[in-house]
């Protein structure tokens, strides 16, 4: 099977998530749609449907594949207990890291407090597992620190994002038991 194109399939009504695999084939065998249901790996996770549209317009052996999985996938909701635990790890790391720098002088606690508050808000409201770690909260950290006239805004945001990239997704997988 060759994959030549992947793009979004648009429909007038949103598809329903079904629990069975279904194969639809047109009478001319030029177009076939395969709908596959998936159950995601977390315990109470939703089901998702992937729809492939396959058509052989150029030759019988070449098939055009269009995947609509991205349009139908829903990330899980944030987990408050995970957010609390991860925020504490973040705060501890950032406090240790920034305390070693002379740039912050007496404002280390305030800088760490602002960064931690922004990170905590993000984890509680938007982070739903791997693929949802955004750069926006880290930009907000640098902007807020700079607006308040605190030293080292960009350095603190860089340390924060570096830690998050190395730990948050991995810790989520451990927390939820997802091995992928």
TrEMBL record:
<dbReference type="GO" id="GO:0010468">
    <property type="term" value="P:regulation of gene expression"/>
</dbReference>
<protein>
    <submittedName>
        <fullName>Uncharacterized protein</fullName>
    </submittedName>
</protein>
<dbReference type="InterPro" id="IPR039349">
    <property type="entry name" value="PRIN2"/>
</dbReference>
């Amino acid at each position: 099977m060759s994959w030549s194109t992947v793009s979004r399939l648009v429909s007038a009504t949103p598809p329903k998530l079904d629990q069975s695999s279904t194969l639809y084939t047109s009478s001319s065998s030029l177009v076939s749609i395969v709908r596959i249901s998936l159950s995601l790996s977390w315990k109470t996770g939703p089901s998702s449907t992937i729809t492939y549209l396959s058509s052989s317009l150029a030759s019988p052996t070449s098939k055009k594949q269009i995947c609509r999985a991205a349009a139908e996938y829903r990330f899980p909701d944030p987990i408050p207990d995970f957010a609390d635990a991860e925020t504490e790890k973040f705060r501890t790391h950032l406090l240790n890291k920034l305390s070693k720098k002379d740039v912050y002088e007496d404002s280390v606690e305030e800088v760490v407090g602002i960064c931690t508050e922004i990170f905590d808000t993000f984890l509680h409201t938007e982070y739903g597992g791997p693929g949802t770690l955004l750069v926006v909260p880290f930009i907000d950290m640098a902007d807020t620190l700079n607006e308040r006239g605190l030293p080292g805004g960009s350095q603190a945001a860089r340390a924060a994002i570096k830690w998050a990239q190395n730990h948050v997704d991995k810790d989520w997988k451990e927390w939820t038991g997802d091995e992928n």
